Fold:
Amino acid sequence: MRKPWHGLSCKTGDNLTANATTWPLKKWLKAAVPYASAHWQRSAPLIKKRSGRSDGGQIRVARKTIRLMTQTLNMETRLSNQISNVQDRNPLPAGYRLVVNDLMLKWKSARHRPVGPCATYNCHGLTFASRRTQITSAQEIAYILEDDEYVRIPLPQVMPGDVAIYYTNGDAEHSGIVVEKDQFSPWILSKWGPAHEAIHRPAECEYDASDVRYFRVAK
Structure:
């Protein structure tokens, strides 16, 4: 069984951020506060003109500027159950661009989209969260499939718009969206870990394709 390469697993978020070069929070805040203060100095007259007061403007601007680069979005299933997620907007090391280049050379049959690399979202975030965040738990994918009433579709009936999920030992390891289908197989749009997006056939990627299942929202 082929293992995910270069830490491209979507099952856990640890490998997506462990190697990222990021500033310590205190250092980042130290750099951001003067910028926020200067920005407020320019914005305060306008805030005062619009609201009739300038107190609180500095706080609003500072809160907007000094925003943690890692956060959780408020996301729910159809049954109003919270979906565990993490959005990491910290910049990735420059070396990830080399990872993308290597993947493009290795999988020449895929159509590589000029998106990424980034850790803002992962494959499951593309499939189920409109590229807004990472969904790193295989159990969360199971909850989404159940709560959102997905049904499994046999391969001959797969159509564009269906969801493809790669399972490893019963857990959702990778996912993508079917964008087209020819006489041979579907073509899947997916994000390869923190790297980039690609449109590819099921087995033409870094993930084990021995157990790919297809799903569709039935209603």
User: Anything to note?
Assistant: Residues 1-7, 11-53 have pLDDT under 50 and may be disordered. DSSP finds six helices and nine strands in the chain. Helices lie at 14-17, 25-51, 57-65, 95-106, 123-129, 138-147. The beta strands are 70-71, 87-88, 111-113, 150-153, 163-168, 171-181, 186-191, 197-200, 212-217.
